[in-house]
Design brief:
Layout: H1 2-20, E1 23-28, H2 61-68, E2 72-78, H3 99-102, E3 111-115, H4 118-123, H5 143-157, E4 162-167, H6 173-185, E5 190-192, E6 198-199, E7 202-203, H7 205-251
Parallel strand pairs: 1-2, 1-3, 3-4, 4-5
Antiparallel strand pairs: 6-7
Helix pairs in contact: 2-7, 5-6
Length: 252
C-alpha cells in the first residue's frame, strides 16, 4: 500500500512539473530547421549540412533553449528559405511557404518565437508601406504589410500566447527599422541578436549556443521587469487603501 502511494506521489509530482512547463512554438526559416525535427515534415530543411558544424539537433538554438531552461516544444514550423511576405528569391511567389501562410499551424503554445526576415532581407523583397488593417493579397507580397498581418494574426489565433520576435544580425536597415516599428505597434518584444558566429551565413555551434543564451537572458530580464511592475501596482493599491482608511478616520 505504501509503495503504491509513493508511486502515485511521484507520478503526481511529474505531472505537476510537466503542467508547469511552458509550451514553445517556433515559426522560422532555415536557422531553426533540422532534418526530421520540423512540422510538417514536408518543410524544407537546411541543417544538417557539410557546410556547417551543426550536425546534431541538440546543437540547435531552440533545442538548447528548451532543454536547458525547462520548456516543452509544442511545434517547430520552420521552413528553409521562407520569407515573412509572399515574395521570395528571384521575385518568385512564396505564398506556399511564407510565414503568414504557416502562422495557423503552431499548435497550442504558451510562447511563440518568430525567427524570420533574414530571407526577406537577402532576397530583396519589396519593403512596402506601414499598414495595420484591411490588407489586400497584393500588399502581402511586401514585407511591412505582411509582418503587420502576421503579428495581428498570431495575437488573434493564440490570444493566450506571448509572442517574441527574434531579429537576426546583419540584415538591411530598412528591415530592422520595420521590425522595431511594427513590433512596437503590436507590443511584441524584439530580441535583437548580436555577435552570432556563422558558417555559410548560418549559425555555427557557437552561434546556436549564443542565440539560446541571448533569448534566455532577454526573457529573464523581461520577467524581472514584469515582477517589478506587479510590485508597483500592488503598492499603488496599498496607497489607495491607506488614503481611504485615513479619510474614514478623519470623518469619525
Amino acid at each position: 500500500m505504501k509503495r503504491h502511494f509513493i508511486l502515485w506521489l511521484i507520478c503526481a509530482l511529474i505531472a505537476g512539473v510537466a503542467q508547469a512547463q511552458k509550451r514553445v512554438s517556433i515559426l522560422g526559416d532555415s536557422y531553426s530547421t533540422f532534418k526530421g525535427q520540423v512540422q510538417p515534415d514536408t518543410n524544407l530543411v537546411w541543417y544538417p549540412t557539410e557546410k556547417n558544424d551543426v550536425v546534431k539537433v541538440e546543437q540547435t538554438w531552440w533545442h538548447q533553449f528548451i532543454n536547458n531552461y525547462g520548456y516543452v516544444l509544442e511545434v517547430n514550423n520552420s521552413y528553409s528559405g521562407s520569407t515573412i511576405c509572399h515574395t521570395g528569391y528571384r521575385k518568385e511567389d512564396y505564398s506556399d511557404r511564407s510565414f503568414i501562410t504557416r502562422m495557423d499551424k503552431l499548435g497550442n503554445p504558451d510562447i511563440i518565437f518568430i525567427f524570420g526576415a533574414t530571407n526577406d532581407s537577402w532576397a530583396g523583397a519589396p519593403i512596402g508601406d506601414y499598414k495595420y488593417d484591411s490588407w489586400t493579397r497584393e500588399e502581402l507580397y511586401s514585407f511591412r504589410p505582411a509582418l503587420a498581418h502576421l503579428l495581428s494574426g498570431l495575437q488573434h489565433l493564440y490570444p493566450g500566447a506571448r509572442v517574441y520576435y527574434l531579429l537576426n544580425s546583419e540584415l538591411k536597415a530598412s528591415i530592422n527599422e520595420s521590425v522595431y516599428t511594427i513590433c512596437r505597434r503590436y507590443d511584441v518584444p524584439v530580441v535583437t541578436l548580436y555577435n552570432v558566429d556563422k558558417q555559410r551565413s548560418h549559425p555555427s555551434i557557437a552561434g546556436m549556443k549564443s542565440i539560446s543564451e541571448q533569448v534566455h537572458a532577454f526573457l529573464e530580464k523581461e520577467a524581472g521587469r514584469e515582477q517589478l511592475e506587479d510590485i508597483k501596482a500592488e503598492l499603488q493599491e496599498v496607497k489607495a487603501e491607506l488614503r481611504e482608511l485615513k479619510e474614514m478616520i478623519r470623518r469619525r
